[in-house]
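Dear support,

Our group has been running a series of protein-ligand predictions, and this particular one with magnesium ion is the one our PI (initials K.S.) wants archived with full inputs and outputs. We had some confusion internally about which version of the output was final, so please treat the block below as the authoritative record. The input we submitted was:
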Amino acid sequence: MKSYKIILTAFLLIGSLSMANGQDNAKHEDTEFYTPVPKEVVPGKTSNSAPSDALVLFNGKNLDQWVMADDRSQPARWKVRNGIFTVDKNTGNIETKQSFTNYQLHLEWYIPANISGEGQARGNSGIFLASLGKGDLGYELQILDSYENKTYTNGMAGSIYKQATPLFNPARKPGEWQTYDVIWLAPTFNTDSTVKTPAKVTVLFNGVVVQNGFELKGPTQYIGQPAYRKAHGASPIKLQAHGDKSEPISFRNIWIREI
Ligand code: MG
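Confirmed final output from the archive:
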């Protein structure tokens, strides 16, 4: 009986030690899931014009509302042409001049018809619904070519990257414009910086709800588990210049309403 207890204690000790080290040994594959695959839905046609009280973040003419994310003193250097703008992967992420807390956002994005690559390396970009600094820090709503392009489901278009698989897959073919309508409620924090209420997001992708009041576990984490580690207030919205080699994607008609 005594030896049984010793063995049990040793077993529990080893178990808790390996759990404590779990984050150190984590691999990116650990948090990538392939099933179940969201059902495909054919989206309808929708009206996307800005309401009268919206702040227009891109009106087809210039990027005056945007700056370089890694150096906010620099104007956004992505190229505006023919009423749209295109990711410039050489210059880096861009983000809004203004900061926001709770809002409704409309944004349209376009995967070029000649897109190449596969999985996460096919039309990858993303919207950091609250940018928390340089690089890919913040809460990412993924943008990707998800039309017949297999990847982990919590990394598809419409996913909250590595946290929430979209409820459906209403992706249009490359070469067709797609819409996101997002309702974002920022997290709130206690005075000791612990999270009081988590961020909450609802996303319509081509008019189809793909995230329904999902409560985020923390900022996006490529490797390891997300958690709220630092309090923050109102934040800019950031667009991702993802480093993959596929053809860059474009954006148009972006507007926001604070709520
Ligand atoms: Mg991305």
